[in-house]
Amino acid sequence: MVTLKINGISVTVPENYTILQAAKEINVEIPSLCYLKDVNCIGSCRVCVVELIERGKSRLVASCVYPVAEGMEVYTNTPAVRTSRRTTIELILSTHHKKCLSCVRGNNCELQKLAFDYGVDEDRFAQEEIKYDIDDLSPYIVRDNNKCIMCRRCTAACNNVQTVGAIGEIARGYKVHIGCAFEKSLDESVCVGCGQCIVACPVGALSEKSQIDEVWDAIANPKKKVVVFTAPSIRATLGECFDMPVGTNVEGKMVAAIKRLGVDGVFNMDVTADLTIVEEATELLERMEKGSSLPMFTSCCPGWVKFVEHQYPEFMPNLSTCKSPQQMFGAVLKNYYAQKNGINPKDLFVVSIIPCTAKKFECTRAEENAFDFADVDVSLTTRELSKMIKGAGLKFTDLKDEQFDDPFETATGAGAIFGATGGVMEAALRTAADILDGGSKKIEFKEVRGTEGIKEATYTLGGNKLHIAVASGLGNARKMLDGIKSGERHYDFVEIMACPGGCVNGGGQPVQGDSVRNYVDLKSLRAKALYDADKKLKYRKSHLNPVVRMLYDEYFDAPGKHRAHRLLHTTYVKREKY
Amino acid sequence: MYIKPAVPFKGTKAQEIELKEFIDLEKSQPGALMPVLQKAQEIYGYLPIEVQGMVAEGLGISLSEVYGVATFYSQFSLNPKGEHRISVCLGTACYVKGADKILEGIEQRLGIKCGECTPDGVFSIDSCRCVGACGLAPVMMIDDDVYGRMTVDQIDDILKKYTVKRKK
Predict the structure, then answer these.
(1) Which pLDDT score is estimated for A463?
(2) Across residues B22-49, what is the average pLDDT?
(3) Please, are residues A376 and A326 in contact by the beta-carbon 8 Å criterion?
(4) Is B31 helix (H, G, I), strand (E, B) or coil?
(5) DSSP state at residue A58
(6) Mean pLDDT throughout A293-316?
(7) A577: chain B residues, CB-CB within 8 Å
(8) What residue ranges in A334-400 does DSSP mark as E strands?
(9) Tens digit of pLDDT for each residue in A241-281?
């Protein structure tokens, strides 16, 4: 521990702290544009400068990278600090496309907040801006370099955290910009669509490709029957868009709000999370019996699936052939539900609310669809849903709780925890243990919980040892795959989610800036809401879900067979590595 | 969006082997990317997507990282060099004497930008900083020939010399 003085207040902190971290201990939050905890730490934007007094002389240092030392004397709010920060922000604004009124981050922009807090003159260094083409060719992410401030959080997320390497810094000096190699569009690159760049971006340079208008149009079209289903983690994060504390479960209000948008049905995607588990557990047991294509990897995460297709195609046979819960729901709705309710599947407009940008890509994959049109018409992020709710003038926090619609309303705890890293594995283990150990009482598999990047465990099920592993974040997935390839790691079943911490921290989730992410572990707070929900539910094992049982009885017959195989399973395609 | 280059990649197996051998030699060193890119440019003359892909694969890094370095240093070229290399001096003396107009004129006539190569591979244009002939400003070089006191109307005749030479 070391003791230093910040603004004259003495504070004792661990030796590995930076000044920025130490300042938080005396309730001073130092702003940062390039620094983002666990993502980017390069000390380049200079917004976090503080005055350091050494041997009677003062100088400005970047507090996000400057380590604390015994007896250090630091001031965070002096005229020199304020002037420096203001000038830095004014310089950043000199090339920033200041279209704040209609910007996707207009109400949630870290740069705008700083400009306001420091009272800057936005035109002080007015100069000619370079005009960049907006990259909106991919179905999931829009990149607008005109708004980019070169903080490099996105490239750090893409290269260091996710090890995807789709975007990087190009050229130098005044012409430096973020882009894909050879100025490709994201669509032509190795981008997997995870959206971790979006949630890292302090401004509006990165956003999901908005499909809100398509949904409004469908709702207004009398010929269309619009049904919406929400992914497990939306209930744990949507509240943040309405200034509720991180980790508030808003399931009831969320359902009430979506119903008031004028749709014809609001369903619970936890149901098809359960359906996925039943199919996947069956597939795993079959593979283990045959001893082929092991370890089996989960396939619910489209970012992870695309990562394998680009970078590790040799592992494609190891991916479970199960569709993701989103696509299974699409298949159930356009086939079973449409048929049962006498609706032409072409007139059924299916909308998923998903914490993910890669899901927008998944809907467009031809191999996912039962017909020659999409099973899921539109996939909206948590952010887009909140925008629709705000646009409809709904007072979200005052809405009374409502329930999902029949027949897809009942969830199990296993489905609910799908939204957190380890959740899919735990859900699968609950079902597998029940099948193999004939009604096992074991429900909680705590070894696979928590936000560490890689978790491993061995369970004995039905007399056999089952080696499992869980990874979240594609950087950890890469470590895992390299370990399996080199023979260092041996598993039977592996769960992988592309985003660190799983879907609760997905690229489609509400964007929390430096003032939250630098100090709070979003991943675990959000995940806690799901594990709490799990504990309270009547059913906690996927195969016991009455809706899932009804689906097999009335339509699918048995897991992995005939109709289930045709509608609930998919195939993969090898993609270019560069 | 990625635009396929007008001049197709003509790399040979021998060149590929030479590059791969060099990469294997260097890849355990930290900061291997720079010498590898220099070697690649020495072998191929430029760094097209095919070559940068080989470098990325060989060093186990992403293409965007390779591209970032290749575009940071002006000595690396993404375009092939022509059979005849045009180099327009944009040094101070030439510039005040209107070298930018000369460069613009050449760009217009050849239909390519500075740093690019014509689709037939005959000419490539680059700019340089001072060839030490300021007294003759504005100056342009084609291969080893120096042309001083350039005017825009001379461009056609000078370029013709090289296309005619080629036909013979």
Answers:
(1) 85
(2) 95
(3) yes
(4) coil
(5) E
(6) 97
(7) 57
(8) 348-354, 378-381
(9) 999 999 999 999 999 999 999 999 999 999 999 999 999 99
Residue spans of alpha helices (H) in A161-232:
196-200, 212-220
Domains of chain A, by residue range, sit at 2-77, 93-208, 213-568
**Which of B49, B65, B72 lies at the smallest CB-CB distance from A171?**
B72
- Give dist(CA A415, CA A418) in Å, integer: 5
Is the pLDDT confidence value at A311 over 60? yes
Chain-chain contact of B57 with A180 (C-beta, under 8 angstroms): no
Q: Does A172 touch chain B (CB under 8 A)?
A: yes
Q: Which two tokens stand for residue A299?
A: 């396939």
Which residues touch A380 (CB under 8 Å, ≥6 apart)? A211, A212, A215, A351, A352, A353, A354, A388
Mutation for A interface: B62, B76, B78, most A CBs within 10 A? B62
Residue B123: CB atoms within 10 A of its CB come to 22
Report pLDDT for B165.
64
Catalytic site residues of A? 280, 283, 300, 320, 359, 362, 367, 503
In total, chain A counts a number of residues equal to 578
ipTM of this complex prediction, to 2 decimal places: 0.91
CATH class label, A93-208: alpha beta
pLDDT digits (tens, 9 = 90+) for A52-62: 999 889 999 99
Chain A residue whose CA is closest to B66: A181
Cβ partners under 8 Å of residue A382, min gap 6 = A234, A237, A238, A241, A353, A354, A355, A506, A508, A509, A510
Question: Which has the closest alpha carbon to A466: A292, A285, A300, A280?
Answer: A285
In A344-473, beta strands by DSSP E: 348-354, 378-381, 454-461, 464-472
* pLDDT bracket for residue B166 (50, 70, 90): low
Domain A2-77 fold is Ubiquitin-like (UB roll) (3.10.20)
Write down the pLDDT at residue A369.
83
Mean pLDDT of A181-207: 97
Query: Tell me, what's the pLDDT at A342?
Result: 96
DSSP letter at A36 equals: B
Residue of B nearest to A185 (CA): B1
Cβ-based contacts of A482 with chain B (< 8 Å): none
A182 touches B at CB < 8 Å: yes
pLDDT of residue A495: 97
**Which two tokens mark B27?**
């890849």
Domains of chain B: which residue ranges?
Answer: 13-72, 84-167
> Residue B97, SS3?
coil
CB A277 within 8 A of CB A542: yes
Instruction: Measure CB to CB from residue B62 to each of A165, A184, A188 and give the nearest one.
Output: A165
pLDDT tens digits for range A112-146: 999 999 999 989 998 888 899 999 999 999 999 99
Matching CATH number, A213-568, of 2.60.120.620, 3.40.50.1780, 3.40.50.2300, 1.10.1200.10: 3.40.50.1780
Confidence tier at B167 by pLDDT (50, 70, 90)? low
Confidence at residue A442, expressed as pLDDT on a 0 to 100 scale: 84
Residues B35-70 as b/e (b if ≥16 CB within 10 A, e otherwise) read ebbebbbebbbbbbbebbbbbbebbebbbbbbbbbb
Q: Cα(A32)–Cα(A52) distance, rounded to whole angstroms?
A: 17
Which residues of chain B neighbour A167 with C-beta distances below 8 Å? 64
For the record, the structure tokens of A94 come out as 């000199």
- Average pLDDT over all residues of chain A: 95
- What architecture is domain B84-167? 3-Layer(aba) Sandwich (3.40)
Q: Is the peptide bond before B119 cis (omega within 30 degrees of 0)?
A: no
pLDDT digits (tens, 9 = 90+) for A497-532: 999 999 999 999 999 999 999 999 999 999 999 999
Q: Is the pLDDT of residue A439 over 80?
A: no
